[in-house]
């Protein structure tokens, strides 16, 4: 194997006239957790489906475990798609048995949280328990490559932390992991990040590399609701985070001007942008 569990070389995917993934090159190596970030529609799932051989490329080549993806790789990879890929009309334990039989693997032990619902139909479980089941199924045959498409969306904070412990343990055991997430605190748990926007790879590396020199402005004011409305009406890219107001990629003087004209008193402070703010800036540039 070339030392990479996943590889894309200038991969493009078009749907009719629309280019969903545009000349993306990337790799995932054994033992690392790579975070794939991007707004809705950025092309993450399309890229993943090509990497796993579930969707043909329009241009470029992909490699899964050192060669073109094919059926023989199924037993060496674990994939949790956004829709989880479980049989909703089978119970938890039936899903596990089915998958274990398909991969000729032993039926894994259920974590405590799933033990009580082992005989419940997956379709009747809460989303968090469904996700945990999908995880157990994906990991049962000890995959060398693990691909997780928003594995923790809709999962409570404790279960999310547990799922991340599991992800890390898989990487520590030598698997290469590619994971998409919308939670920035999860992005920080990855060894390396890839950022997609409009089908293109627009950033890679550490959190610092992704944010680059994008700046933001923090606005402190007691009148946060009115401040938000004024900046929003002025087409300034304002973000309300609780009661804190942040404005990425905007000159503090522009904000000062808009607020002074409306008679709002506020403390305006330039700060470093977050990854979310960098993503918002990229989305507005398109
Ligand atoms: N089969 C298809 N036919 C036409 N367009 C498609 C198809 N699959 C995806 N697209 C389009 O390609 C773009 C990228 O979709 P994709 O699902 O890869 O994005 P994503 O980054 O995974 O988004 P999300 O975070 O919402 O899952 C979207 O505009 C989507 O509508």
TrEMBL record:
Record carries keyword Nucleotide-binding: yes
Protein name: ABC transporter ATP-binding protein
InterPro entries attached to this UniProt entry: AAA+_ATPase (IPR003593), ABC_transporter-like_ATP-bd (IPR003439), P-loop_NTPase (IPR027417)
Keyword terms of this UniProt record: ATP-binding, Nucleotide-binding
One MF term in the entry's GO annotations: ATP binding
Limits of the ABC transporter domain: 6-223
């Amino acid at each position: 194997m070339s030392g990479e569990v996943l590889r894309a070389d200038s991969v493009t995917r078009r749907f009719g006239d629309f280019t969903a993934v545009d000349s993306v090159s990337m790799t995932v190596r054994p033992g690392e957790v790579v975070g794939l970030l991007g707004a809705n529609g950025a092309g993450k799932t399309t890229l993943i489906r090509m990497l796993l051989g579930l969707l043909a490329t329009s241009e470029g080549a992909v490699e899964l475990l050192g060669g073109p993806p094919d059926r023989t790789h199924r037993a060496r990879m674990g994939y949790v798609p956004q829709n989880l890929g479980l049989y909703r009309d089978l119970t938890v334990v039936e899903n596990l048995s089915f998958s274990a039989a398909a991969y000729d693997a032993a039926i894994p032990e259920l974590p405590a949280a799933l033990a009580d619902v082992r005989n419940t139909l997956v379709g009747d479980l809460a989303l968090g328990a469904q996700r945990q089941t999908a995880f157990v199924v994906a990991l049962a045959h000890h995959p060398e490559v693990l691909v997780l498409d928003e594995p923790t969306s809709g999962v409570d904070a404790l279960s999310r932390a547990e799922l991340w412990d599991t992800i890390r343990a898989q990487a520590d055991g030598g698997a290469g992991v590619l994971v998409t997430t919308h939670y920035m605190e999860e992005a920080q748990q990855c060894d390396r990040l890839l950022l997609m926007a409009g089908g293109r790879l627009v950033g890679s590396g550490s959190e610092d590399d992704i944010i680059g020199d994008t700046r933001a402005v923090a606005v402190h004011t007691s009148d946060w609701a009115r401040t938000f409305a004024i900046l929003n009406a002025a087409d300034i890219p304002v973000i309300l985070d609780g009661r804190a107001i942040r404005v990425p990629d905007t000159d503090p003087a522009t904000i000062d001007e808009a607020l002074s004209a409306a008679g709002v008193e506020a403390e305006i402070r330039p700060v470093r942008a977050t990854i979310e703010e960098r993503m918002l800036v990229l989305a507005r540039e398109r």
